[in-house]
Amino acid sequence: MIRQEVLHAVLDPKAVHFKQFWLSSVDRDESELLEVLCFGNYGDLNAIQSCEEWKDAIESKLRTLTLLGLCEVPSELEYDQAMASCCIPDDVILEQRMVELQAQVHFQLDSVGRRIKVLRCLGARDIYNGERPLLLLRDAARSRESTLAGLRQWKQKLQYQLR
After folding, report:
1. Mapped to the 3 state alphabet, what secondary structure does 66-93 carry?
2. What pLDDT band is residue 116 in, cutting at 50, 70 and 90?
3. How is the chain split into domains, by residue range?
4. What is the spatial distance between Cα 96 and Cα 98, in angstroms, rounded to a whole number?
5. Distances from the Cα of 145 to the Cαs of 26, 69, 110, 130, 151, in angstroms?
6. Secondary structure percentages of the chain, helix, strand, coil, to 5
7. DSSP element (H, E) containing 107
8. What angle do CA 142, 144, 147 make, to 5 degrees?
9. Which residues does residue 121 pair with via DSSP β-bridges, in sequence order?
10. What mean pLDDT comes out for the span 111-120?
């Protein structure tokens, strides 16, 4: 049984962090849903077997979370890449989704060039640190190890540029 506060968070368009719910979850269906919301992407939507009555809300949330994840790294994002990752059918819907992320991401849309220039990403997706076993996902794209590896690469790049 999915807790009411979890459902409210899924339905809240501004909510992007679900790890606190995942860590305290004891229900298998709820844990699977929260695992995908925390660490999965739009492509993992079909892994969730329960929650049919909220499928549209969950699908919408995963699109938003996947876009946020794409904005964490690059300074420029092609429309085609974002649309393919989130299964978004047209430019207008993509631009609407980006506007929904304004509190998390500062960006400029280039509708003609079909690019999103990420100026600053204020939010980030949840990070998996092995707190409990994953039930559905083979591995989490954003884990402690991958975050540390990215920081080490960034440090080396900065050190190289300063030489």
Report:
1. HHHHHHHCCCEEEHHHHHHHHCCCCHHH
2. very high
3. 4-162
4. 5
5. 26, 16, 34, 10, 10
6. 55, 10, 35
7. strand 105-110
8. 65
9. 105
10. 96
pLDDT in tens, 33-65: 999 999 999 999 988 888 788 888 999 999 999
Name which of 66, 59, 150, 146 is nearest 104 in CA terms: 66
Residue 142 has pLDDT above 70, yes or no: no
Contact call for residues 66 and 42 (beta carbons, < 8 A) = yes
> CA 163 → CA 67, 127, 150, 157, 159, distances in Å?
35, 33, 20, 10, 7
Above 90 in pLDDT, residue 26? yes
Q: What is the rounded distance in angstroms from the CA atom of residue 161 to the CA atom of residue 133? A: 40
pTM over 0.85: no
- The SS3 of residue 1 is coil
The Cα diameter of the chain in Å comes to 57
Distance CA 8, CA 2 (A): 10
CA distance 117 to 114: 10
Residue-wise pLDDT tens digits, 65-112: 999 999 987 689 999 999 999 999 999 999 999 999 999 999 999 999
